[in-house]
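We emphasize that the prediction below concerns an isolated chain of 188 residues; any contacts that depend on oligomerization or on bound cofactors are therefore not represented. The input was used exactly as deposited, without trimming of termini.
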Amino acid sequence: SIIGFDLARSGQFAPTPPENMLSLPTRPADVLFRDWRVLGDEYVVVGRSEMEANGNLSITYYLFDIINERQLASEKFTGPVASAREMAHMVSDAVYEKLTGIPGAFATRIIYVVARNLGTPSVHFTLEMADVDGARPKTLLESREPILSASWSPDAKKVAYVSFESGRPAVILQEIATGNRTVLTNFP
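Result of the prediction step, given as a token string:
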């Protein structure tokens, strides 16, 4: 469902709903090209997930060109069960890049500011980080004062933003993993 949602959200693909599929293959040998042509599909992604003996989860996908009846790509991702969502986004990135020539951004994160109760005495701002599809939001900072212009550091391990916590604008650099904050500038 994550992969289908990612690809549909890109606006470049219209995944066939599972209830409309004639079969649900999980291995290359199970792909019947004529079934997918009947549905009007040009490409098909099939895959499987398995628990390995060491407790890790492996996700393997196969990308097929239905018109030319050939496999275009295959890759296996392995990691802790807790990283299943990230691995699904990585599959989406790989499929997107293979079909468009443009690197996918589904395995990335976004930062944004949420402003609640504007214009009231209980105004509240939070700096949030989430998967690019909005899932798994995490609050990085809460404040009663505005937070503006959040931006990633080049290594994506820190975020810079403008905070008015001191009553005047200050540029803050915050480490995402630890929450440690450094005031870079404090404007009058």
